[in-house]
């Protein structure tokens, strides 16, 4: 069936404005809020370009394989190449092996670029003089062998394009147009390649960006293109798409109140849009701001009456994972990454040494030896500043083996150890077919476990082609396939096995091999590694299910890109100082960065709702309630303690 091209007269208003910018030779940015149909516009513009410029080649790059498939299903043509950002970059540089080796060696041997560190058997930094094999791009990393992964690729590509102008000319010769989907989450390095590096040659191609700065909730993304808006080389012309096809009227009004970038959304005039009723009118929708003096979330959910067992229809969104962890079955992993009071005790000792005894010798000493040396000759009163607090003592009493492990490790290793729950839970992927989007803060041990579980899931679901694409196991013959099936049939039976046992079995079978990142993690973060590998693998499987969306709960970050009929948002900061809902509701002028982050995450949460939106706030101040009445309407602000509207 021939692809339908778009004539100029058939285009939407925004698409016509984009075409005008293209005709003037300008790069462009199509900004659209949540539910505006940005992917539709992307496809619309690609179809028009194919029809009006039949010999022009077009590259469309996006973040996920799912997005690639969606775009390819809507528009398919020999002159169009749709791929993930990483595949696009790798295909652009992979044939230039001499230059690749030179760039990679320079990065490895640069002591200031920790991302490319290679360690010797003693855990010390090692410089490499050469890489014997070709540079390859895999799901894992082995820098000595020239194997890089997602996280390294973008840095390597940026250096390649910065150093070699010829590479820029080749890309411009290949593609007249490069379209970037979800630009706000794109690495700053990718933006630099497209808007700075490519412009060094005399040729001009046109780069188009599609996305929404208000939905830039990841720190690693470029966020906005405000610095590039304008005319001329390396600049972009902004076009706004105002329609909203997803949200009911009350949610649109709330979303507009949250925006401060000048983009005001209006309901779509398309009677077939999801937010239109059968009579062609915009759905009104329902808003609720529920509050109480205690954390009475169950009472709030009971009042709403939604069926939270249907995770595809109703979702509870939390900023913090702590309360969810135990319910979802990964409480011990959460304890390690966000509740370890042994590490709090290490910090206490570190602060004591700095303030009271800075001359204390800690070289070559274990943590236990340092504590013992500090206690020598101290009075009972002096020991109070060195001994654990009551809370730390309670924790140590419950986890004596963990405390003994800490005491046996080098003091400097523990004192420099930084751990955060993002290392466990951060999830920046946009679809269930990904392991993790690049830039995730997950640590290398958790990333490794995700690769194992993803392989197991693909195999059990019968997705054998995808399984063979991502596994480290090489399949070259029929016998290899027979051997693989026998091993996988045994491997998927994980009952009773520890995380450490599963890692070893996956490595032995070649399903997911132990790589540089995991080896480095073991050397540098042994305290964390030993605790995690001792846990039942079931604990990690429960975490995997939670982050895959198979429970009624979700993080507010992970919900980006999704939509549900009913959305319930718990406005609880947890222990994060990056977010504060009270600051947002009270317009704290001295906390601009925190408010901006909170505003964006709240905007993303609210605009997931297709029918009903409710939020819960514990013990709001008078100022918070005043803003809630302004945003939600006085009749929708409900005190759960009195069960009456206030």
Task: Describe the 3D structure.
This protein is an alpha/beta fold. The strands form four sheets. Strands 13-12-14-15-11-16-17 form a seven-stranded mixed β-sheet. α6 (150-163) packs parallel to α8 and α9 (249-258) runs antiparallel to α28. The radius of gyration is 27 Å and the shape is globular. The termini are far apart. Residues 428-439 have low confidence and may be disordered.
Question: What does the secondary structure layout of this molecule look like, with pairings?
Answer:
Layout (H helix, E strand, L loop, with lengths): L12 H11 L3 E6 L5 H15 L5 E5 L2 H10 L5 E5 H9 L3 H12 L27 E2 L9 E2 L1 H14 L1 H10 L2 E5 L6 H10 L8 E6 L24 E6 L1 E2 L4 H10 L7 E2 L18 E7 L4 H8 L9 E5 L3 H7 L2 H8 L2 H16 L10 H9 L4 H4 L6 H9 L1 H9 L2 H5 L6 H4 L18 H17 L3 H7 L7 H14 L7 H11 L6 H9 L1 H8 L3 H11 L5 E3 L8 E7 L10 H6 L5 H15 L2 E10 L3 H11 L4 E3 L4 E2 L1
Parallel strand pairs: 1-7, 1-8, 2-3, 2-6, 4-5, 6-7, 9-10, 11-15, 11-16, 12-13, 12-14, 14-15
Antiparallel strand pairs: 16-17
Helix pairs in contact: 4-6, 6-8, 9-28, 11-12, 13-16, 20-21, 22-23, 24-25
| Helical content class | 40-55%
Gyration radius, rounded:
27 Å
Largest sheet strand order:
13-12-14-15-11-16-17
Mean pLDDT: 88
Largest sheet: 7 strands, mixed
Overall geometry: globular
Q: Kindly name the structural category.
A: alpha/beta
Low-confidence stretches: 428-439
How many strands? 17
N-to-C terminal Cα separation, in Å?
60 Å
Give the oligomeric state of the chains in this entry, treating copies of one chain as homo and distinct chains as hetero. Answer: single chain
Residues in β-strands, percent = 5-15%
What's the total helix number?
29
